[in-house]
Write a structure and sequence with these properties.
With 205 residues, this protein is an alpha/beta fold. The chain has a domain at 70-190: Rhodanese-like domain (Oxidized Rhodanese, domain 1, 3-Layer(aba) Sandwich). It has five helices and eight strands; from the N terminus they run αβαββαββαβαββ. The chain has helices at 2-21, 81-86, 97-101, 129-136, 151-162; strands spanning 73-77, 87-89, 93-94, 115-117, 122-124, 142-147, 170-175, 188-190. A four-stranded parallel β-sheet has the order 3-1-6-7, covered by helices on one side. A two-stranded antiparallel sheet has the order 2-8. The longest helix is centred in the N-terminal third of the chain and has 20 residues, at 2-21. It is globular and about 60 Å long. It starts with a helix and ends in a 15-residue tail after the last strand. Residues 1-22 have low confidence and may be disordered.
């Protein structure tokens, strides 16, 4: 009986020793870091510097779909909300140019826009007009701007240039009138039958 107990103890010790000497499993390989997809290089914002018409833009109805949904860019529609609500690109936010940004009578009763003067030499109506402009149109992003035909965008671009923006990052991609092809349909919200009435209010100091 004593021999059996010793034999059992010896087997137990041997099992523990052998188990301890067993090769440890290799650590699981670290997951390969996910490579961030490299964004396509943007074309020049203006083919001829200082010409802010949509015809001179490096991005327009012919190639916009190649540069959609970029994290380094914001997409803005400058039309009035009534027009925007009827038809717009899904990822574009609306900032009505004439309702919010500019009116030559701004600062007088009934005209609360941020700037008056001219597009080339805008005059801030409020102390915070410049700060609001920078918040609406961030300087650290590429700006993809559209309206109905590109005219409002050109006006805004002159104002942005006068306010110290890097115009190599600002694109006049034209207007909704140029985006009628079937290839744009899936990117659009189209509710032409919808009629919306809007009142604009600006609280600025």
């Amino acid at each position: 009986m004593l021999k059996f107990k010793r034999l059992l103890s010896l087997l137990l010790i041997l099992t523990i020793v052998l188990t301890g000497c067993a090769t440890a499993p290799a650590p699981a390989p670290s997951p390969t870091p996910v490579q961030e997809e490299k964004l396509a290089e943007l074309p020049a914002a203006q083919k001829v510097e200082g010409d802010y018409t949509f015809e001179n833009s490096g991005i327009n109805h012919e190639n916009l779909l190649d540069y959609m949904n970029r994290e380094d860019s914001v997409y803005i529609d400058l039309r009035n909300y009534e027009d925007y609500s009827k038809k717009h690109f899904k990822n574009f936010e609306v900032i009505p140019f004439f309702a919010y940004i500019y009116n030559e009578n701004a600062g007088t009763e009934g005209f609360p826009q941020l700037f008056r003067g001219t597009h080339d030499e805008p005059v801030a109506v409020y102390d915070s007009s410049g700060a609001i402009l920078n918040a609406l149109f961030p300087k650290d992003k590429n700006l993809m701007l559209m309206c109905q035909s590109g005219g409002r965008v050109a006006m805004l671009m002159k104002m942005l240039a006068a306010n110290g923006y890097d115009m190599s990052k600002v694109y006049n991609i034209g207007g909704m009138a140029q985006y009628t092809g079937e290839q744009f349909r899936e990117f659009m919200t189209d509710t032409e039958e919808l009629n919306v009435e809007v009142n604009y209010l600006i609280n600025a100091q």
